[in-house]
Design goal:
With 321 residues, the chain is α/β, with parallel strands linked by helices. The protein has helices at residues 12-55, 88-100, 118-134, 151-156, 183-189, 213-238, 258-264, 273-281, 295-320; strands spanning 70-77, 104-113, 139-149, 161-164, 169-171, 255-257, 269-270, 286-288. It contains 9 helices and 8 strands. The longest helix has 44 residues, at 12-55.
């Protein structure tokens, strides 16, 4: 029986369709190879960066290696909180390295913070006191730039001296606990609040329930206790430089400009961080000891997120079509 061969296309249109199909398949193969090379290159860069992160010792380029005399700076920037830039761990780490550096003539705590956690502020305050006792010949100066209020001033009061700009915001020696109440709103909307607790005060400060008089008194007592701790820390740090009897408003939660704060004894002088380094410390060279996030770690985090998003997109894309 004679073997049948495929019948060749009978028109130019059929040839055109075949040619188009072949070219489309070639383009698809080129795209696959291109994306394969891109992902290989990204993977190589990722592994290379990871290798550098492992090989380069932690703290490479550390300020402890500075051989010249200098003024050590440590920043307190932003809200003081456990996981923030101005966390106690980060600030204390910078302070310890600054005090331990043989060539740091003095330490300047550069403050631009509205305050935050009283616990974190207390940690830093206590560590400053300890370091000053361990290194009595090394002065620590707090310099307030835009704002040094509440917990930030709590920290500053542990310094040997405090400086500020005439327009700085200084003070706010008080404690606050804030919230919202929606009792009337939930009644008007006809919404039933379902909260189950074990312990009659477990739902204290529930925004959908009125505050009971006993609970309010308890919270106020707690705030007063923390306020007294704050006041005692400021009095211990500032000593006779503040006259609370003549100026009881100092501990009322009010805040002032740097110029007014100087007349109240809250700050010792008006100067910028650079002026303090040059004119007070006498060492114009500045070295920043503020702990920074490892740039490779940040790069890997951003890069990993980008690669993950790209891979997810390449997998999900066809499924959505």
């Amino acid at each position: 029986m004679e073997e049948q061969r495929p019948t060749p296309p009978q028109s130019s249109r059929e040839w055109h369709l075949i040619e188009k199909l072949v070219l489309s398949m070639q383009d698809e193969q080129k795209k696959q190879r291109r994306w394969g090379n891109i992902f290989k290159g990204l993977t190589f860069l990722y592994l290379f960066a990871l290798l550098l992160l492992v090989v380069i010792p932690r703290g490479a380029g550390n300020t402890l290696s500075v051989a010249e005399p200098h003024t050590a700076f440590v920043d307190v920037t932003g809200v003081i909180a456990p996981d923030a830039k101005a966390s106690a761990d980060r600030i204390v780490t910078g302070l310890r390295e600054a005090f331990e550096s043989d060539n740091a003539r003095a330490v300047v705590l550069r403050i631009n913070s509205p305050g935050g956690s009283p616990v974190q502020s207390s940690y830093v305050y206590a560590e400053i006191k300890r370091l000053r006792g361990e290194y009595p010949d090394k002065k620590l100066y707090a310099v307030i730039t835009d704002i040094g209020a509440s917990g930030a001033y709590y920290i500053a009061s542990a310094a040997d001296e405090i400086y500020a700009d005439p327009a700085s915001i200084v003070g706010s020696i008080g404690v606050i606990m804030a919230g919202f109440g929606f009792t009337d709103a939930i009644d008007k909307l006809g919404v039933e609040r379902r909260v189950m607790t074990a312990g009659e005060n477990k739902a204290i400060m529930d925004p959908f329930k009125p505050v009971e008089p006993g609970q309010r008194a308890h919270l106020q007592t707690m705030l007063d206790e923390i306020h007294v701790q704050f006041i005692n820390a400021v009095k211990e740090g500032r000593g006779e430089r503040i006259d609370a009897e003549q100026h009881p408003e100092i501990f009322s939660g009010l805040f002032w400009t740097g110029e007014r704060a100087r007349s109240l004894g809250l700050v010792d002088g008006l100067a910028s961080p650079g002026q303090v380094a040059r004119d007070v410390v006498g060492e114009e060279k500045i070295v920043d000891y503020t702990p920074r996030e490892n740039p490779w770690k940040q790069l890997l985090g951003d890069f990993g997120a980008s690669v993950g998003a790209g891979i997810a997109g390449s997998i999900q894309g066809p499924l959505l079509k």
